[in-house]
Amino acid sequence: MKKYILFLLSGMLMTSCIDTEVLPNDVVIGEDFWKTKDDVTSMVAAAYKEMSQAGVIERCIVWGDFRSDELEVNEIVFNDSKRTDLEEIKVGTMDYENQFSDWASLYSVINKCNIVLEKAPQVVSIDPSYTEGTLRTDESQMLALRALCYFYLVRAFRDVPVTDGAYFNSSQNFEIPQQAPLTVLDKCIEDLQKALQTPLSPDGYTDWRSVGYINRDAINAILADVYLWRASMTGNLDDYDKCVDYCDAVIESKKARYLSDNQASGPSIIGNIDHDGYPLYPGEYAYQYNFIQGNSMESIFELQLDGENISNSGLMHCYWNYDDKARTYGLMMAPASRFATAGDGNVFIKDKDYRWFESCFNVQSADATQLTVFKMVSPTGTDNTEASLKPVTAVITPGYTKIDQNWIVYRLTDVMLMKAEALVQLEASDANNLQRAFSIVNTVNKRSLAISSPTATDTLQFSSYNSKSAMEQLVLEERQRELCFEGKRWFDLMRYTYRSLRSGDANDQSALLHPDMLLSEMGGLSNMAKTSTILGNILGSDVQMSMESEPYLYFPVKQSEMKVNFLLKQNPAYEKMESIQKQ
């Protein structure tokens, strides 16, 4: 049988035919495939499965969290290339050979989506059971999943190649140039808006598929996130307005579904779920439903890992067990200096916050320098109640195999806080927007307090945050409290930095600049990284001073990619590093 390439990524990913995975029994693009509805369904499922692979989830964590103040390299020294590469990322000496600059896993998902988009339409005329309506919802999912992948890539690399075409074999032309950030973001928006024309309904399923497939709510959430990032890069207030609109679409949908379900089944057995009009679990139950049970009422889109067909080894490697059953530790730990104590200057400011005890094992430790992540790791809750709050000191993990912990991409509180972030930036157009933003933050914060009747001293007070700068900082801090270790923090910090310091034109490719031009001709972009106060506080002054300009905030293009795609241009920060190393 003729062999076909399973995951030919966007051209530049292939270092040689030897590195290409050749699987003749999976995606066979030949006369015996693309004949039935089942063929399409299996390929759509394969795209979701590819998104759930360890390589993708590891990069969600490394690209979205690890570079921030939430995670450190495990101080236990062991000889491994991943640990070495993480250390180089953390101290600012990363180069273009770093394995976490490999984008292949995301482009593999993109190619799966492109194959479905190219091949599925022909099945409508062959199999009567595969209707035009089903085709449109399949296309909606693949357009949105592809856009999500490009959104991760543009936030990690800035300038990235974009292709709509599918790759089936190694004879195709793989040379594709990079595009500037706004071009990529606009392509994401175009695909997402098209996906929104024929989406799956959030009410279409009552099982895991209601949040395991990308439906209308998930598309709106991605659009809100894309517009928030775009607005932060450009300062365009219209983009903040659009972010608010898409957040509202998600929030109203979640409210409507909660009201419908509540009328059908009666009041919840876990108490009051209505928090200032938002359908949120009470704080003492939130971890159980969102992270242990999974696919919860608050979830919008999460990658499904059942532990049998696919195990969440990416999460395991990062947080509790790396590459050896005998190891009882992962690649990363949380800094005790940020998480061991609650109070001013720490991530959690109240010692009555359920989320503090659910963030890391052994909080309140007086002598630990690093803490093992609890969130998404512990298979059991803390059993904390208002009357009894205590840390979990013994590390409990799911083990080494059959890890069925889902990876949540979006959930309701994330979207609520996106809306709050956008409202702060719209303060000039409506003075009430600061109060609206505060109300959202306060709702998220209050639901997690182990205090049934909080007083003014227990809760956040608007009078302490009634300026734009103070409210912006509050939203940033609350996002960390709510979403720590979920792949969000570094991206949050980059948005904050973009707003605080105007960068270069997002219509330009930094990759096209010669490294010698970095400081002399890149305008506002030249001092963006070096003069950002918040990055200095988080990265440390030594690391910050080595990050001379905006390109240093992004990953380099892996050298192996550039050897096979001559249209790729290296991130100029790392071109400069290469020239220094050669001297």
UniProtKB/TrEMBL annotation:
Coiled-coil parts of chain: none
Assigned keywords, A-Z: Cell outer membrane, Membrane, Signal
RagB/SusD domain ranges (all copies): 396-574
Main location: membrane
InterPro entries referenced in this protein's UniProt entry, alphabetically: SusD-like_N, SusD_RagB_dom, TPR-like_helical_dom_sf
SusD-like N-terminal domain ranges (all copies): 40-228
KW Membrane (keyword) present: yes
Cellular component aspect of the GO annotation: cell outer membrane
Location within or outside the cell: Cell outer membrane
Key word Transport present: no
Family: Belongs to the SusD family.
Name listed for the protein in its UniProt record: RagB/SusD family nutrient uptake outer membrane protein
Species per Swiss-Prot/TrEMBL record: Marseilla massiliensis
Lineage: Bacteria, Pseudomonadati, Bacteroidota, Bacteroidia, Bacteroidales
